[in-house]
Amino acid sequence: MTSTTGPARSGASVPDPHPSLAPLAFLVGTWHGEGVGGYEDLPDFRYEQEITFLSTGRPALAYASTTWWADEPRDGREPGSPLATETGFWRVQDDPDKPGGRIVEVSLAHPFGIAEIYVGTLDGTRIELDSNVVIRTATARDVTRSVRLYGIVEGGDLAYAIDMEASGKPLQPHLSARLRKIED
Ligand code: HEM
Question: Which of this chain's residues are annotated to bind heme b (predicted)?
Answer without folding.
Answer: 174
